[in-house]
Amino acid sequence: MSSLLKMFKPKTKAQTTTLFAWALIAPAALVMFWIVVWPLYETFRLSFTNANLGTLMSGSDYIGWENYEKVLGGRKFPAIVGRTFYWMFLSVGFKMILGLIGAALLASNIRARGVIRALVMPPWIVPIAIGCFGWLWMYNGHFGLLSNFAEMAGITDGPFSFLAYKQSAFYSAVVTDVWIGTPMVTLFFLAAMQGVPKDLYEAAYVDGASRWYRFRRITLPQIMPTIVSMALLSAIWTFNSFEIIWILTEGGPRGATTTLIIDTFKTAIFSYKFGAGATRAVLVVLILGVFSVIYLTVLGRLSKKYSYSGAQK
Amino acid sequence: MKNIKKALFLAFIGAGLMAPVQAEEVHMIMCGGEIREADQVVIAAFEAKYSGVTVNAEALPWGTCQDKSMTLAAAGDPAGLAYMGSRTLKQLARSGLIVPVTIPEDQQEMYQPGILNTVSDGGKTWGFPHAFSTKALFINCGLVEEAGLACVAPKTWTGMYNMAKAINDNTSAAGVGITGKDFDNTMHQFLNYLYSNGGTVNDAATGEITFNSPETIETLEFYGKLATVAQEGPLGYERSQLVQLYNDGQIGMYIDGPWGAGSHNANISEIVVPIPAGPSGSSGTLLITDSIAVFKGSANEDLAMELASMLSSGEAQYDLDMSWGLTPIMQYEKMMDDVYYDTDYWQTFVAPIGSGGPEPMFEDFKALQAGINGAIQGMILGDGSAADLVAEAAEILAEGN
């Protein structure tokens, strides 16, 4: 025992430091292993089995690639993947644009700025489920506000149930997602804008640069790292967004709002097909992983190019 | 230190003495969001009979209740018993999560025809039937007369459509309320029409899917035709929301159970009539039961079985049916002289029992709902022909059977 301890006893100061660092990291690493690595491994393992409600007592069987073949060979899967990316690009795009506009307005020297900044927060502060139920009511055809306003304004000639038709249900879900997600983007952009050195604006102002020119050539390049980070985070969150769609439409009507995460939930939890659901979850991880790498590479290049040209001018 | 040791010692002794008299608990899940008074009386009687036993009765809304019961069982922490839709029983039974129940022979003979079929699979009975409903068509006579028609029962689909169209064209209300939301009662509404047109979902004896038939196609086409004179956006509605529209005078008619009259505004002048017959069948109805299942491996399985039996037997069951306004699950007229359903209103719901069709039992009961609702939604949205949609639904049903 003592010889074993001697073997691992640090001999140099550097080794002592390394060992100490590992000792500090160990508890967190163990927790991470328990809550991240192990479930991930289990998901991968399940994806190769026929686990369902019926196999819980008898035990599931290894079925190789069968689940993957079924999912990837199915008619619906390509449409669901396409819809998920469309949902993500549309929603993230709007959040970025509105967030940028909102942050620029909130950063400007306007009256009651503090109050207006506080008013931006509610969609983010209100629990998502409560916000969604509010929207659910507003989208109702017979009792909802939006239908009533549209009718009064002469846009529709009668009640209109926004969640009862494929296209309107999809875009209604996007609107709700944008409403919930924009405040956080706005606040992050605002924080980044406030960190831009004032002397850059003063110098540009003295040189006669217009407001738009200063925004384009100073603000945007300076906050580009924040935009890139927020865009990626927002993309991942939106891709995996579950509660908004589930509360509003449960993925309907007729699958029009079924994204990958909704499909995964419906299969694994709703229909108790744990193996097939795990397969979808693994595919979500793979798709998001590949997407993130491509996205970061492209945006990183764009960011460098944009910042460089901005600095040159 | 000595005192602390003494206190700990006494605590251990105390805990040891308390353990044998600690109350046993039976966890009961009740779908529907409330524990009815008639059931509460039985629970109180059960607790009085078994002193030291408490019933933890948890009422949950239908939307989440069955999933919770099944997930708890799947996770190895089952409730003792749960009141759920009988359509879940086959899946639970085949998954080994519930135990078969024994209903005394004299009680079996009391049930209405077809009731026990809704809780049986593989020659065993998997739940105590506890609630039963048949359906009929409620018609708002005020709107019918405003449309210039006499308020008399339409006997056929053609008559029903013409009445709905007249209301739709001549009043501010929609002709009929139909459901299209991805909810179980959308499927139920459709099955009422299907059984009134001679259609079936599967062969009860062999389990073979018989959904893809000319009768089903005809029914789906009719449902699509009804959508043209129905409230705006049927896909946004399930049955309980139609009640609101009906009470607001926004729809002329809709299908509901015998409790319907009690949920309608008193100022609505209405008639309740059997579901009109389709061109290929005669008036029918869907026979739905909810039942009490006993889960395998709960802490007090025997007590759970006893409670389930008490809740669903004789007088207790009669009190529930009467107070809730359900179609009588048993032929109580054999037990007593005066029964609550001896009225014209009730005969509309009782008479079709013999000719009704069951809610089919599927191993994957959610596939049943997904398949049929998919076809209904597709028809209303114009996603394809009735024949294609029915064929697609039949494929989904075959997978889940």
What is CATH's topology name of chain A?
MetI-like fold
Strand content of chain B: 5-15%
Rg of chain B, Å, rounded: 24 Å
The CA-CA distance between the termini of chain A, in Å, is 69 Å
- The name of the CATH architecture of chain A is Orthogonal Bundle
Notes on the structure:
The complex is a heterodimer of chains A (313) and B (401). The radius of gyration of chain A is 25 Å and the shape is flat. Chain A has a single domain, classed as MetI-like fold (Orthogonal Bundle), CATH 1.10.3720.10. Chain A is mainly α. In chain A, helix 5 runs antiparallel to helix 12 and helix 14 runs antiparallel to helix 15. The C terminus of chain A is likely disordered. By secondary structure, chain B is an alpha/beta fold. Chain B has two domains: 193 residues, 3-Layer(aba) Sandwich (D-Maltodextrin-Binding Protein, domain 2), CATH 3.40.190.10; 188 residues, Periplasmic binding protein-like II (D-Maltodextrin-Binding Protein, domain 2, 3-Layer(aba) Sandwich). Helices cover 44% and strands 14% of the residues of chain B. Chain B is built from 16 helices and eleven strands. In chain B, the strands form three sheets. In chain B, strands 1, 2, 3, 6, 10 and 11 form a six-stranded mixed sheet that branches. A three-stranded antiparallel sheet of chain B has the order 8-7-9. In chain B, strands 4-5 form a two-stranded antiparallel sheet. In chain B, helix 2 runs antiparallel to helix 13, helix 8 packs across helix 15 and helix 9 packs across helix 15. The radius of gyration of chain B is 24 Å and the shape is globular. Chain B starts with a helix and ends with a helix. About 1% of the residues of chain B have low confidence. At the A-B interface, helix 3 of A face helix 3 and helix 15 of B.
